[in-house]
Amino acid sequence: MTTDTLSTKDKILQAAAEIAKEVGPVHLSLDAVARRAGLSKGGLLYTFPTKAKLLEALVEQHVSEFDESLRREEAARNHGPNSVVLACIAVYRAEFVCNEPEPSGILAAIANDPGFLEPIRRYNKQLLQRMRDNAEDPTLAMMVFLTIEGLRSLKLFEMGLLSKAEQIAAIDRLKNLFEPADPEMADVPVPA
Amino acid sequence: MTTDTLSTKDKILQAAAEIAKEVGPVHLSLDAVARRAGLSKGGLLYTFPTKAKLLEALVEQHVSEFDESLRREEAARNHGPNSVVLACIAVYRAEFVCNEPEPSGILAAIANDPGFLEPIRRYNKQLLQRMRDNAEDPTLAMMVFLTIEGLRSLKLFEMGLLSKAEQIAAIDRLKNLFEPADPEMADVPVPA
DNA sequence: TGTACTGTACCGTCCGGACGGTAATGTCAA
DNA sequence: TTGACATTACCGTCCGGACGGTACAGTACA
């Protein structure tokens, strides 16, 4: 039951993200989503009673998926110093290596109603705080956050500026800023 | 005449960006833009014969404004080494200090038609190339590009994560990576 | 017997865009 | 310098279509 529901939900969510990406959030219609997801409009409205609920789910899905991965990576690092920053880098690296699709759904949600930014704002605020509190060099943590945000943005808008290798190199260089055993080296970047 | 025309155009462009920001790009209607810009729908359609043309102008305006500022800053640095990166940082810093509004218009354009990403993609590709070619440390140039992109993204989505002071500090720290007279220090960040 | 849909028909609203004006200003030739 | 026409910069109205959402009858599986 739950599995079936989730599966249908996921199909819808995926369809919505795809359509938003293809034709732009403005032209994301429930009819098109239903068609792509392989069910009727009635069925779609049965699962998500309004368009707003669908968009909300799109945002929720993305944030909670990221958070789950992050917590897992943090735990794997025993919540030690810099674990939040490193976990964040690891999650982004993984979702990048696994070729996860860009979250066009979020864009669609925001385009429909800027109010959907609020939960994301809240989450990011709290995340950045945790990154800094847990990092040995808070300023550097902020720089990492910004760089990842830059990579994310490039991905979100499908700018094909950097090759996969370049992006992974950037991520790994970021990681190296934190991982050297010698703490005095923590804010010295490795040479190119 | 021309001044009047430009003024009307600018009023429309500004109105469109404001509305997009307030109600979301999806709900950006020509009627609303006309109302906000203080003219009739007919007058609006006279200035921009289609909605697509309006959105195109929104994108064009933003890109060309940035490019003009950039070229100016580059020239001020006599096109010497690192001048592109430094100019880029300076432009972003200036438009940030001057409290320029976030370019919600671009979001609106993209939301209407992802095709509007293409010119931006092209511009960014060429910009990044120029940054690297002109920089003493191309990898570091890329990192700067990503960090600025991160700050941009934060601004675009109005995440109020970093205080003004923090953002300026981040920008200036970025600048310091390139500006020290001693070239051997070029990729060592100043301590926080 | 109910949960999870399908399929269809329909309603009200909104929107982009076309169109037909019009008033003010400019141009130019007789 | 005046009358004829052109251009610019708008106004107000209308329409076809799309979209979100409702309602409801039917169906298939468990």
From TrEMBL, chains A, B:
Protein name: TetR/AcrR family transcriptional regulator
DNA-binding region(s) in UniProt: 29-48
Origin species: Phyllobacterium endophyticum
PROSITE patterns: HTH_TETR_2
One Gene Ontology MF term: DNA binding
Lineage: superkingdom: Bacteria
Pfam family, one: TetR_N
Coiled coil, from the record: none
Record domain HTH tetR-type: where: 6-66
Keyword annotations of the record: DNA-binding, Transcription, Transcription regulation
